[in-house]
Design a protein that fits this description.
This protein is mainly beta and about 775 residues long. It folds into three domains: about 40 residues, no CATH class; about 80 residues, Immunoglobulin-like (Sandwich); about 625 residues, TonB-dependent receptor, beta-barrel domain (Maltoporin, Chain A, Beta Barrel). It is about 5% helix and about 55% strand. The chain is built from five helices and 45 strands. The strands form nine sheets. It has a 22-stranded antiparallel beta barrel. A five-stranded mixed β-sheet has the order 8-15-16-11-12. The longest helix is centred in the first third of the chain and has 25 residues.
Amino acid sequence: MRPPYLIFFLLLIPLLFLGAGASKHAEEKPTDSASGKSAPSWVSGTVLEKGTKKILRGVTLYIKETQDQAVTDKNGHFRIQVPPGRYTLTIPVSGYEAFEQQVVASGPDEKEAPLFRLTPLIANPYKIVVTSKKKRPAVSSQTIGIEEAVMTPGNNRDVLNVVTNMPGVSSISAFGGYGSGLVIRGAASEESTFFVDDHEIPLLYHFGGLESIIEPELVESIEYDAGGFSAEYGETLAGVVSLKLKEPRKDRFGGYVNVSLLSSSCMLEGPLSEKGSLAVSFKRGFIDIYTRIAMDMDEELKEEVRFLEYPTYSDGAILYSHQFSKRNTLKLAAIAAVENTELTMSQEEISARISDRVSEDLTFSMIMAEWSIQSGRWKSRFSPLIGFNRFDVDAGSRAFFVLKQNQTRFSEKIEYELSETQKLRFGGRIVGDKINLRSSLWSRKKEGEAYHNPFENEINANNDGHLFTVSVYGMDQITQGAWMVTPGVHALFDRHTDQGYLDPRLLLKYQWSDPLILKGAMGLYSSTPDLDECTEPWGTEHLEPERSLHTVTGFEYKITSDISLDLQAYYKKLFNMAVRSDPKDPTVYSNSGEGRIHGAEIFLKHRKTDRFFGWVSYSWSVSKRTDENESDRFFSEDIPHNLKAVVSYKLNGDWTLGGRYAYASGPPYTDLLNVETLYDSDNDQYIPLHDGPVNTDRLSGHHQVDLRVDRMWLFDTWVLSVYLDVRNVLRQKIYIDKSYNKDYTESENEESLESVVPFIFLGTKIDF
């Protein structure tokens, strides 16, 4: 038998070795001096996108040596506990360049975690989060994203101008863009409406089409309805363009500075608190600089015109959003714009009605709120607006127009989900505007008039009045199997004319197969006549609403996950149109006008991906009308053929190329060459005495090619981009009207400005 102490000694030997190893490891590991325990070490940091500083949430990253991993939180932060030492951090993220970096594990006293910036394969400073994803009950609707709107060639960052590339749309602006209005499916420009969020605004562009008053970075999306739309919208006979303002970003502060040949602008946005965020923008145009240069270079022009104040314009906006909860959000928006100019003309331009001094002064401002709340099956969006507008044009004591308008408006939209297959939508609008008008002018030329003598009457007005309308709507969206049926009705009462209307509407969609949807719509659409037509002394009071019956049919076909085809045919019957009814008195109107518009549209679209977007749209239409005691004629904006093709492709992370091709038929006109005239000695002008057919001739059509090139550089905390946007690069002649010499013995085609003056938009933008 072995002695007990020998057995004890043999058992003690391995314990001594284990103790020595533990002692050695303890010497290598940091200890907490207060407790004597080992202090942990970490690999930590924040993951951002290079250039835009976008926080990358939910990103999985690895320690290459240990295969330990972590996922970034909502702030982009991560933390991995490891033994002390040097490691390789790997961040494999789809859409970004491969990232590996040597890091050193830090102790608990590390106060500031390092930043890791991933380089995107395709940089996109315009990318924003879209908050509205609901399916809209519409059959002729298109939704345009902000990057598509900004990057469309020929737009010069103008988000409104992109609508002119949609099917069924023609532009009548001398500037070639949205400008003074859109002709949607053959109807006159004033028969369509434009909304910012839930409110119609009176001013869209500076100087009738030069540049939009709203910066593109304030916009989330644009929704365009060509016709046959739901009962939500009233007071329109043709189409609706609705611009949705975004919510300012909440993750960080940032913005941009943009300097182009046309204007300079800037914006700053970011969080003010955990639930509130703010965006502020400002723009100032350079038209005064170019006007001054042109005056200095042209001696003949100096003799004809002298500017006392060169034309200037500027605008600004403030957006604020506060999220009380996920289902309770308040958004505030303030938009303002000003423009003015004053000049004197040579004695040749002076008449008995117009002096040698002309000035324009415009001020536009509005503040609106939007309170969105959801409770159970209920959703509500309430939006009030107050605004002040002043428009002052002065050309002497017998030629001036001063309009002051105080706006007070309310909009309410409610949605109630009865079941998974049925939703009720209803709401209304109240418009209560106070107007002060002082003017001494003549009656306005109306659509289709071959010639209108501006000096045949003198209308003086000094009126204080109110505009008050109340409208309500309701619709029931029913989904049953493959069918979606949306009956609805829109009703309005106008206190100014003491008239009202009730417009029933019906929209249908049928899912024939997974890629194919059949659709159709029918309904009445009404609008109060223009104010100068139904207000004395300009027009005739108590005119009835103008009416339009829409019929639309077509289909949508999803060719691939990225490519879709939309084909539609439509017919519109117009009646109760306000027209002049007394040849001797241009202030007398009646509801005796009628019209007929029919056509078809094809829209082939490749949805926006990281590298590419584009579409081809073709529209064919015929629009005719019959005024009182007149024969059938074309609308003055009738464009039978309209083709648009748009492409934009990102070659890599730095370069983007885009192109646009357009063809449009020429508009009709009435030939007044060598017509019999009457000389007006007081105003030194010849008045053509035309009493024949109207719009029997047509100007020639035009082709147009626009090109755009963008170059981008990424830095750690900002993005530099340079863009060149050239409109009508082939210098094609674009004719918009016919002009004549003084006595109508000679004529020539009047050209759009973009075929006379090079429209070259060169700019630099810094996003931070």
